[in-house]
Amino acid sequence: MVCGDLNSRIGELSDFLLSDDLDKYVESIEHVVNPIISDRRSMDKTVNAFGRKLLQMCFNTGLVVANGRHCNDKDSNFTFCTAKGRSVNDYLLVPPSECRLINDFIVLPMNEFSDHMPIYFELDLSVIRQQNLPRIHKFIKWDNNRCDEYIQILQFTVTTY
């Protein structure tokens, strides 16, 4: 996932390539069925050069724009406002398979701290936990006689991660 001020205006151009399904005919490539992605809307109809680069990045990485697709932001509200005008240039980019994790997506009202409106979104990570992730717990029961061993384990764990 990528979220932030990307200084890009993409209007309502498509941010993903429709699958041609040709990969299923090539034995060395694993066929992946893309989830159905809803059309994206935007209040900002302008496209700029950075926007085209952002779309190319989406095509290359398979990420899609969450703005204008989810919950309370079906119209992709403006995320930037100055005396010169308004635009959408703050985005949340997600893999299509992870769109289902977005429970809520809202562009919050402007505040006195920035000319950008904050993006608020909630992810339901319980969906992931229930699927294929094993639960791994490591517990160390304290024993004063084994302090040196605990220190070595903790130092190894910290340097490993």
UniProtKB/TrEMBL annotation:
It comes from the Eukaryota. This is Endonuclease/exonuclease/phosphatase domain-containing protein.
